[in-house]
Amino acid sequence: MSGVHLLVPDVLREIMLWLPSDIDQKFRVAQVSRYWRDTALHSPVFWSSFLGRTNLLYINRIPIVLERSGTTTMLHVELRLIITPDTDWPTKALAALVPYVARIESLDTYPLSPPTFQALLRSNLEFPALQTLRLKGPHRHLIPRLLLKTPRLRTLDLEYFDPEDLATLLPLTLENIRLHQVDVESVETLFHILARCPRMWRVVLQPRNRRNEPEDEVFPASQLLPLTLRELEVGWVNSADVARILNTWFSDVVLHTLAAWVDPYDTTPGLDALFSGLESLVVFEAFDPRTFEVRDEDGRIRRFQGVSIGPVRMAAHEVWEQLSSRHNLHKTVRELRIRYWDDYVDIFERCPPQHDGITLVVGADSDFSVDFAAPGDSSRSDYQQFMDRTHIYGSQQSCTSLRISSRRHVKWRFASAIGSWWEEKTSGKMSLTSCRQVC
Questions:
Q1: Is residue 4 scored above 60 in pLDDT?
Q2: What residue segments make up the domains of the chain, in order of their start?
Q3: What is the pTM of this model?
């Protein structure tokens, strides 16, 4: 007898629950043998979680999967659809779910166009069991509108989707919300979320359009700030309004994670509000040219992005200088994660870090130049290096490791020269713990 027949039903059913949720894979499992088929057909839970794709075979099997899921098991549905003008398969797939809305516990679909989901998501249906809703619309087409009721929703993630009535998606049970490229106003929406959802721990608002609040507008005082709130991200709000939001609603709260957009013309108000209440800043990261992340010694995160205004962007060395002058970043930082070495040079020359045992992390996804003056050189020395993860050269001084590609001849003094250059910049008071590259 083949080994697949020796599994007792309980063990086989447990194995099936850990298999991929792809509809095609489920049918393959049910065809291994008659014994496996009988076990699968008598296990509604096996069919209650499924992933469907834009394929005629998948679409035709969705009603079968739903029927085999029984009448009481909760449904977890994922649909990855490709919208094309000459097919109505996605529409049929979503329409097949309508009779089962009372049992859907999680729904995750993308992308969706307005005609596709009309019956399921724009008919004001009530999803009494729905706890997780993730929807993504086609960003290059007409933005879909959403109309449904979700009295038990806990996680809401909308991208390129506009709710007809956001209030119906903000029950008391909501804990996690992300609205990306959605037509809402940041300040007003944030106020409603904080006032209506006492269990909220994460709020991410990235509206599709920028809104400038009048300078004399009075923000309503929030008396219902959720005690569980840990993460907040607000986009398309200028620096002054970021400061007003934080000072009005969060004056006595230090959130674990806080992210906002900062105007490169006037960074001071927003950055001061972002970093209020933090302890010593120990990590500075600038791998993305427009996004910066700073962490304090308690692990709290501050992330900010510069709004592009024509050619004006926030440079890493400018952010570093401001945080150093106003928040002593250069005195407490222990690890710097910056994509290009040239940015390190700008930072070191303007405001050198002063903490002993600094770790430098350099990006290795593109070629970059290393430009520094080694001790004893009367003029600047320019080194063109290429870094990857294949060759490791130990430093003769305080630089623990450098990973340098062999695509170009590298002088041995390169590794020790960085260490020497570091000591020169810090007057010999600090050592360099490590210099490493990451992908």
A1: no
A2: 1-70, 355-439
A3: 0.78
